[in-house]
Amino acid sequence: MSVDREVVLGEISEIRLPGGETLGQADLVRALTIEGGHVRFVLEVRDAAMARELAGVEDEARRRLMALPAVDRVDIVMTAPAPRQAAPAGGGAPSLKIGGHPTAQAGPQPIPGVRNIIAIGSGKGGVGKSTVTSNLAVALARAGRKVGLLDADIYGPSQPRMMGVTGRPASPDGQRIEPLHAHGVTVMSIGLMLKEGEAVVWRGPMLMGAMQQLLQQVNWGELDVLLIDLPPGTGDVQLSLCQKAAVTGALIVSTPQDIALLDARRAIDMFRKLKAPVLGLIENMSTYVCPNCGHEAHLFGHGGVAAEAKELGLPFLGQLPLELDVRLGGDSGRPVALDDGPTARAYAQLADRLVKGGMA
Ligand SMILES: Nc1ncnc2c1ncn2[C@@H]1O[C@H](COP(=O)(O)OP(=O)(O)OP(=O)(O)O)[C@@H](O)[C@H]1O
Predict the structure, then answer these.
(1) CA of 21 to the centre of ligand 1 (A)
(2) pLDDT score, position 278
(3) What family is this (predicted)?
């Protein structure tokens, strides 16, 4: 049995905001939907500061609704429109309203000129998803492919650092965004479009709007493949991407540890539900080879991801070693896949598999 819309509104409209008004008087509730016991709505606030002030209100609304017998889940999305950036005289920084609400779109769309879109996900943070994305992009570019890299890791965009790009991308006409270029790869990061801390209140519709703009308003040009570095986990960015773009498939990065694998399983499940085929699993931080004595150690276990791939009937695409140079390369903006060591060779093999499989 579904809870009544009026009951939901009645339950929350009397909650007091810090300024003294009630939630009902302030008229902040948007897009209320009720499906069975699942209540969802948007709280549209003025700006990030107001969103922070209303965190208690959000909690109180959730608490009150969860206390209703027919309600078993409450999702509240707090959004605040990002201020429009004024373009400096003579053009320059984009005046796009990154983080605005999405525009209507009929299902996932291809990106003109882009042949394949590959999402790179992980269940857990810190498993090396961004590192794998930047190195794979470079390895594919070295293999002669036209490669784009979109850093959609809104909570910790690291591609500017890892690829060594800085500066705000230009938008001469205020409409299209010109991406940056590094190591033969066309790069765009959500981090290059934000002021520090701006993304903290983004959820739901605003993330959807930001993703739509990054996919459709960036001049990606002709690409064999666009790699998309996702935030860890299973959230709104993944959902937005799969709803907005015709994703070729997803690669899942995991360490061999069980805990990472457990989380990776959740990510795999999510992509399946979003109808994005999982193209394969990659094991990062597999083997550590001591640079002094050549001894191989498996700090995070070994072979777990290959076994998991087998069990799930998914391709296992390769193992990437744990190596100090990988981190140093990531920190200095020069991915190690540009060199010729064992890790670069592992990335070249991974790139080769994707090219031969028609995915890149
Ligand atoms: N194979 C590796 N060898 C050595 N260091 C690595 C390796 N892979 C990743 N790292 C290091 O581990 C840290 C985390 O990597 P990275 O930022 O790529 O992870 P992530 O999964 O994208 O994390 P986040 O959750 O922040 O998105 C970085 O300092 C990176 O340089």
Answers:
(1) 46
(2) 92
(3) Belongs to the Mrp/NBP35 ATP-binding proteins family.
